[in-house]
């Protein structure tokens, strides 16, 4: 496929992304996308919200209240936008919100859509077992296919692994830690390394990505550009670490010793199956358990850095301090759970 150049585009072509609409701009990761995009000074941000939403936004953010069952309402909110970022809760989308957004984005001629694809890259061109095992494969492939078939937008899957402070500081069904009980469950030997990212790193990554020029200026322009990610993946990360690495950081931050903790081990396939069984019983915590367990399988599906490479350097992302974010995770766990 030949590369297009900005110098070849018709008069009026803008070689940058300026207007960005975000669904979920007040949420966990959406708020960091919003903050970092505004920090660049290059973007205007529109928060797509429901009419009944009570969310408030800082100066510089326009709130567009929409009715997801009213197609024209969605199209109007997206008209003139250069990019649409979708952040929704993980799991099924029974109301088909993404599909409605894709159709509206196409009618509004939004050139870039970042669907609700965060976590581990699930790429059908490379391998799909983790997608099947986490019950996400079909929905992701269908979303990408729909965007392509509508023919007006390109998709970019933003891959960041699981969110570090959210996952470490969450329930024991995430990274295996219970801080109030000082309990940890290691999957297998606890040494399998995975990629994981902080919320701020995700925010910076998204802002850097959408601040790239859309096309290279000409044949001699070798700088990165947004279109190189069209219908493909951008991969970012904060840390490549194992549960044992996390535990060492926890010990340093909490000033505790291994003997202060109740430590146990579970085989990956047994823990995964227990999550499946819980889901069959109608307990949604089972989904979290199987989802997180699956990335710690020893086939390194969770280590996309070594498998496929990262775009951290291309985007100019900083190196972060593990203990700093472990501290945030512990504080979150103590105050939330």
Account of the 3D structure:
The protein is an alpha/beta fold. Helix content is 37%, strand content 16%. Strands 3-2-1-4-5-6-11 form a 7-stranded parallel beta sheet, sandwiched between helices. A 3-stranded mixed beta sheet has the order 7-10-12. Strand 4 (83-86), helix 3 (97-107) and strand 5 form a beta-alpha-beta unit. It is globular, with a radius of gyration of 21 Å. The termini are far apart.
Amino- and carboxy-terminal Cα gap: 51 Å
Poorly predicted sequence stretches spanning 5 or more consecutive residues? none
* Tally of helical segments: 13
Q: What's the total number of strands?
A: 13
CA gyration radius, whole angstroms: 21 Å
Mean pLDDT: 94
Largest sheet: 7 strands, parallel
Element string (H = helix, E = strand) = EHEEHEHEHHEEHEEEHEEHEHHHHH
Q: Roughly what fraction of the amino acids lie in strands? A: 15-25%
Dominant shape: globular
Share of helix, binned: 25-40%
Q: Which strand order do you get reading across the main beta sheet?
A: 3-2-1-4-5-6-11
Structural class: alpha/beta
What's the SSE blueprint?
Layout: E1 19-23, H1 30-40, E2 44-49, E3 61-65, H2 71-78, E4 83-86, H3 97-107, E5 112-114, H4 129-133, H5 137-150, E6 154-159, E7 162-163, H6 164-168, E8 177-178, E9 183-187, E10 194-197, H7 199-210, E11 232-235, E12 239-241, H8 243-254, E13 262-266, H9 268-280, H10 285-295, H11 304-308, H12 312-315, H13 322-336
Parallel strand pairs: 1-2, 1-4, 2-3, 4-5, 5-6, 6-11, 7-10, 9-13
Antiparallel strand pairs: 8-9, 10-12
Main attributes?
337 residues, alpha/beta, seven-stranded parallel beta sheet, three-stranded mixed beta sheet, 13 helices, 13 strands, 16% strand, globular
């Amino acid at each position: 496929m030949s590369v297009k150049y900005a110098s070849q585009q018709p008069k009026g072509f803008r070689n940058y992304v300026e207007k960005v609409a975000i669904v979920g701009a007040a949420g966990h990761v959406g708020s960091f996308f919003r903050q970092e995009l505004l920090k660049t000074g290059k973007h205007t941000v529109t928060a797509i919200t429901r009419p009944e939403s009570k969310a408030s936004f800082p100066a510089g953010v326009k709130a567009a209240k929409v009715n997801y069952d009213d197609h024209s309402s969605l199209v109007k909110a997206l008209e003139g936008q250069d990019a649409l970022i979708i952040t929704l809760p993980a799991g099924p989308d029974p109301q088909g919100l993404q599909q409605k957004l894709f159709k509206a984005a196409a009618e509004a001629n939004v050139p870039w859509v970042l669907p609700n694809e965060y976590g581990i890259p699930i790429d059908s061109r490379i391998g799909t077992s983790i997608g099947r095992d986490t019950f996400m494969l079909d929905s992701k492939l269908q979303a990408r296919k729909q965007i392509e078939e509508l023919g007006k937008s390109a998709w970019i899957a933003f891959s960041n692994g699981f969110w570090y402070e959210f996952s470490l500081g969450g329930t024991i069904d995430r990274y295996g830690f219970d801080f109030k009980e000082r309990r940890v469950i290691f999957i297998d030997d606890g040494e399998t390394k995975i990629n994981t990212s902080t919320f701020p790193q995700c925010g910076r990554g998204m802002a850097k990505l959408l601040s790239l020029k859309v096309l290279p200026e000409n044949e001699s322009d070798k700088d990165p550009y947004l279109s190189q990610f069209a219908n493909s993946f951008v991969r970012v990360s904060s840390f490549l670490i194992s549960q044992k690495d996390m535990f060492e950081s926890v010990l340093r931050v909490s000033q505790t010793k291994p003997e202060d903790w109740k430590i146990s081990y579970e085989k990956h396939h047994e823990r995964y199956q227990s999550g499946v069984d819980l889901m069959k019983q109608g307990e949604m915590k089972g989904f979290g358990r199987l989802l997180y367990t699956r990335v710690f399988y020893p086939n390194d599906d969770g280590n996309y850095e070594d498998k496929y490479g990262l775009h951290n350097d291309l985007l100019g992302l900083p190196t972060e301090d593990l203990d700093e974010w472990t501290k945030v995770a512990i504080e979150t766990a103590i105050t939330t759970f």
